[in-house]
Amino acid sequence: MAIRVTVWNEYRHEKKNPRIAQIYPDGIHNAIAGALRQAGYEVGTATLDEPEHGLTDEVLARTDVLTWWGHMAHREVQDEVVLRVQRRVVAEGMGLIVLHSGHLSKIFTRLMGSSCNLKWREVGEKERIWVVETGHPIAQGLPEYIELEHEEMYGERFDIPAPDTLVMCSWFQGGEIFRSGCCYQRGRGRIFYFRPGHETYPTYHNSLVQKVIANAVAWVAPVGGPANNFGKKQPLEPIGER
Amino acid sequence: MAIRVTVWNEYRHEKKNPRIAQIYPDGIHNAIAGALRQAGYEVGTATLDEPEHGLTDEVLARTDVLTWWGHMAHREVQDEVVLRVQRRVVAEGMGLIVLHSGHLSKIFTRLMGSSCNLKWREVGEKERIWVVETGHPIAQGLPEYIELEHEEMYGERFDIPAPDTLVMCSWFQGGEIFRSGCCYQRGRGRIFYFRPGHETYPTYHNSLVQKVIANAVAWVAPVGGPANNFGKKQPLEPIGER
Amino acid sequence: MAIRVTVWNEYRHEKKNPRIAQIYPDGIHNAIAGALRQAGYEVGTATLDEPEHGLTDEVLARTDVLTWWGHMAHREVQDEVVLRVQRRVVAEGMGLIVLHSGHLSKIFTRLMGSSCNLKWREVGEKERIWVVETGHPIAQGLPEYIELEHEEMYGERFDIPAPDTLVMCSWFQGGEIFRSGCCYQRGRGRIFYFRPGHETYPTYHNSLVQKVIANAVAWVAPVGGPANNFGKKQPLEPIGER
Amino acid sequence: MAIRVTVWNEYRHEKKNPRIAQIYPDGIHNAIAGALRQAGYEVGTATLDEPEHGLTDEVLARTDVLTWWGHMAHREVQDEVVLRVQRRVVAEGMGLIVLHSGHLSKIFTRLMGSSCNLKWREVGEKERIWVVETGHPIAQGLPEYIELEHEEMYGERFDIPAPDTLVMCSWFQGGEIFRSGCCYQRGRGRIFYFRPGHETYPTYHNSLVQKVIANAVAWVAPVGGPANNFGKKQPLEPIGER
Hints:
Largest interface: A-B, 46 and 46 residues
CATH topology of the domain at 4-113 and 181-220 in chain A: Rossmann fold
CATH architecture of the domain at 4-113 and 181-220 in chain A: 3-Layer(aba) Sandwich
Largest sheet of chain A: 9 strands, mixed
Strand content of chain A: 25-35%
Order of helices and strands of chain A: EHHHEHEHEHEEEEEHE
Radius of gyration of chain A: 19 Å
Strand order of the largest sheet of chain A: 2-1-3-4-9-8-7-5-6
Oligomer: homotetramer
Number of helices of chain A: 7
């Protein structure tokens, strides 16, 4: 059975800014969704302005992997929905892929526990994303690096917990570096943060960027390990009188 | 200058339960504080029922390391104070030592991002805490294992992010194991979770348990690395026309 | 195309000791190989006393994953073959599963860089292997723990580098714990160490033990990331006169 | 008592190349040794062409931390001495700091288990070393980044095991990035790899580079945890008839 992906997008920039609308006429979510369908996944979308941001219990129940793009309206995401997503990841193993400016989303900062803040600059400089962990499944089929002619800069210190695995690291023309492909296990769920994707550039139309996200979907997808079984337990071995 | 420690305690069990009061007549906090003073630290205490739980901005500003014991009243800890502590750890590098049932405290679950839930049993069985990372500073001066004749059992799955370093792991008489000494870096701050310390046993009077906590204070103490410098930045290298 | 596994076995105990021969009449390797064939893999075997220990360049070239069981004759394994296996793992991404007493094999200690020594006891005590990382692919389809009524004890300090991921940890009746399911990335290759499997017990006939090894084959199998491209390089960006 | 450091240097370039001799008239080792003495350590030196490369049992027995710079003559280092150093690190906890081209030294590749190979280019380009883990002791007193106007380039894939902690990452003018400050625990010993230090540049006269090495000495210094106690053990708990 195909992995079921829900591609979430804030979907505001594309509606307000004609230059962005030109790049993503159907929204960033549909650019990503199209690429993931091509990769063989079963894909739906959801956006901020839908009821419950399109992330009802029913939608999440049939979502194996959720991807998240947000930027200007992180605060408008309801806490209840954030907790629902967090629970689906931690307790039930839904995979989560957080993209670009999603680093400051409520869901990512909640799952990380740190500020997730960083340096940034928007002058359209060159980014070169180096694969440092060439043996990781997310690196499958990639070249040594991905070059993006125009991107926003994100620079260190990126205030995240050290990734369980650092798969990629970016070079920027203006002099910074950035941990740009970061793997995490949180509870039963897996999380991948992937840096590029500023709304004013056609980054999600880049076939290698699409390849990374498609690989990440497979990596974060639920695994089917033992269910949680918390609480009070009887001894498994005889203990005798204490 | 000595490291300044604030020992925080819920301080409810000791006031309500005469059996516990007998073990910790001045509260768990004063047992821990006494041991840390012996170890050469400058130590204050704070408890739940003080105003702002004893954790005002002023107190935190002069605290290098905070230790946390809580159990029955996690929910009574005000969110504002939790956020204040989280900020002191992540943004400013205050160290945090979370003890035993503090695993479900608001501050620990916020910093971890997962449920931090586990299995438990309270029959006074034997615990043997093995040092697995013998080259870690928190293992300094310890024997191969610490034996506690009577303790509450905590069992896996312990729903935490994989520790940056797993220093200790417990064996329980009833058949379980548990990752009992767990190191984390979160932002500029360091966190150590240490398992033993159920209120009905004299665990914090044990000299090896005291030694672990004293070692952990030194390990989590602030380091003095570069301050955060987030936000918009000018290029460090010439970029030219883009 | 099915993953191609070569199951390597020292194959001495089974030929010398009738009690062991009764448990593994065709050798430990054939017990493991049979289980992996059932799991859908394409499986061959190789043993110490074959020319080049059965691990010629040709055999390794068509091996995606190598499993390793050795005990009494680690020193008889030729250094040249060890280097060949190491190169296949590190440079080309062949997966490696090291079983039980293979912890002191030349190939494992070379890849780890530490002594890989441990405590042990052979009285047939009970082992209970707890899954601690329930969201890891090697935990797929497992219960919370695997109970082995009779096994050799291995105890900490296990002198290994901290695993990239600790998937399982064992409880022993005699009072020890042990990190028993350990994941590593080394170069382009992945390695899994799995503790149980003393030759005098029918451990490799246990269906859950077989399940772990089958899951591990999938996890360590080569990924197809970017090939190594070491050496002197021209600048990717203009540098000008220096 | 002061930490006792032995600074090891191949000491060939400085004797053969007048341009390098001008930068390091007393050898790279004495530049490093002088800086570490300033930092309060008790420092000796040793070089390749001394008997046993200056690393006799006696010298190692009184060495808490060994720093290693080598480049053109890695193969001339006797295997016996390499094994002696490895044993001192892994079994006894001596700290090891591997500098720059020491990445291909026998001692580093043995401890790592992978090829430790990389990309390189020697055109004197600019390097900017970013601190990514600002809360790590090795970052103490550092600014956000260290800028070296002229250095050799090292580029990814750097074929090392993922560091236990990645403290620093370099940006290069020519378009590459590199994991340049890498922490490892191996056995009872700690290892720090620090990238910069090509022999044709005055890198070890840079006060921030000196600061990193001085901080690293404190971090890798032996800790005094439980000694190894491998081998056959009696049960700690009653097992009964099996």
